Amino acid sequence: MSVDPLSWLVSLEGVPSAFAATRDGIDALLRDRGLRRTSPEQTATSLLRGAHASAVLEGSTSTWEEVESGAGDSVAADAVRLSTELLSQVPVLGRAPLQALARLHAVASATSLPEEQRGRPRDAAAAERLRGLSELLLADTSAPALLVAALVHADLATAAPFPSHNGLVARAAERLVLVARGVDPASLTVPEAGHLALRAAYESNLRGYATGGDSGVHAWLLYAPEAFAAGADASPLRG
Q1: Nearest 5°: CA angle at 236, between 234 and 239?
Q2: CATH top-level class for 7-32+42-238?
Q3: What percent of the chain is predicted at pLDDT more than 70?
Q4: Extents of the domains making up the chain
Q5: Where residue 4 falls among pLDDT bands split at 50, 70, 90?
Q6: How many Å apart are CA 55 and CA 48, to the nearest integer?
Q7: How many CB atoms lie within 10 A of CB 142?
Q8: Which of 49, 51, 27, 38 is nearest to 237 (CA)?
Q9: Apex CA 234: angle with CA 228 and CA 235, to 5°?
């Protein structure tokens, strides 16, 4: 029998209830609106809102209006380009996570890095970290999909395994896990906007995840459900 690598996280105080409550809220949003009545345009709007929020977190100064009109700065352009490719990686993530993550980086860095650096880890330690993350994504686990998405995000953001664009890739990968694992199949919530709305807590908890040991991981897993809930509030389904 294989050992669940995430079982210890599911037992942390406050974590199961926080993720369960947030998942209930997301399910209610999608159920109440009726996924059959949603449109590709709403998915596109959600992805674009996410790209803008992620770009701002990465240092972009572009406004939503600029991004919406295609006039954003280079960081915003990278985020938008990544958002247009994202959903094509859903089937890849389930069978070859390393390939999917490499593709996300290659797309994000397409205009700023030479071809031989796109989608490549920056060194041997980074390659090992990515292999570990891939194993986690392929593991048999009872952990909630929201928790897995949060871990993937934090690990990529703090380990920074690629030569550039790690924040953009981390937030895109989080959304990708939510789609691939059935939390938000049509990608209608905007987790990136949730993190932007809680920016101070987001950045503080990422620092804690990187340096705070088990307590830092615990704090991140208590923060993440709040961000996912805020991301649901930013959905185009809310109007």
Answers
A1: 95
A2: mainly alpha
A3: 98
A4: 7-32+42-238
A5: very high
A6: 10
A7: 8
A8: 38
A9: 95
Q: What angle do CA 122, 125, 126 make, to 5 degrees?
A: 45
Find out whether 196 and 179 touch, Cβ atoms under 8 Å. Answer: no
At 7, list the tokens. Answer: 């079982």
Which tokens sit at 78? Answer: 């990278």
Sign (positive/negative) of CA torsion 215, 216, 218, 222? positive
Structure confidence at residue 35 as a pLDDT band (50, 70, 90): low
d(Cα 29, Cα 19) in Å, to the nearest integer?
Answer: 15
Residue 36 has what pLDDT? 53
In this structure, are residues 143 and 8 in contact, taking their beta carbons and an 8 Å threshold? no
pLDDT in tens, 162-210: 999 999 999 999 999 999 999 999 999 999 999 999 999 999 999 999 9
If you count them, how many residues does the chain have?
Answer: 239
Tell me, what's the pLDDT at 195? 99
